[in-house]
What does this fold into?
Amino acid sequence: MSVAIRLHHVHQARSMRTLWLLHELGLEFKTVVHPFGKNLRDPKYLALNPAGRVPALEIGDDCMFETGAIAEYLCETFPEKGLGRAPGDAERRDWLVWLHFAETVAQHVASLTQQHVALYEASMRSEIIMKLEAARLGKCFGVLDDRLKGRDYLLDGGFSAVDIACGYAAYAGGHYVKREAYPLLTAWYERLSARPAFQASLPPEGEGIYGQEFYAPPQAS
It folds into this structure.
């Protein structure tokens, strides 16, 4: 791709999926890092992503948002990298399922991040929501763990963009649910997190959304 690529990113947010994918594809791009907060409501940014979220991926004079759509587009644009599964491929259906399952996992992570991180006052938080969302996230981790039986990656054909999509959810979700309870998911995550492209997508020390490694659910009173 000869056009300029620019990614709008918040450290550790869902835009990390796109950042990781760009690194795996070996593309040249620039990154615009935004702080975690309300600055994405600026009209100039809303012209790029009207939802006021990250990512926004500028490609030449055009712009995309939504990580799933970006992954499909980039994998179809660079099929030689082997991270997608083209229409007609035997694994295309499964590739689409797991690409979009990543968003199912991420919605629970986002709810937990709102409760534990974005809502600063304890009185604003809901113990019920925190417990329910942690349980739902744990069920999603269980789905991934089951899928990984007999596999190193989510598809039999090997590492692909769906491992990036779901791998990010395992990374972020690990701040709320212990991955160690899911041994196959843990081994898979260790393989993913050792990849240079994953490492390149991590925030500098001391930056990012998460101020601690793990946010325990509230204890029963």
Q: What stands out?
A: The beta strands are 5-9, 30-33, 56-59, 62-65.
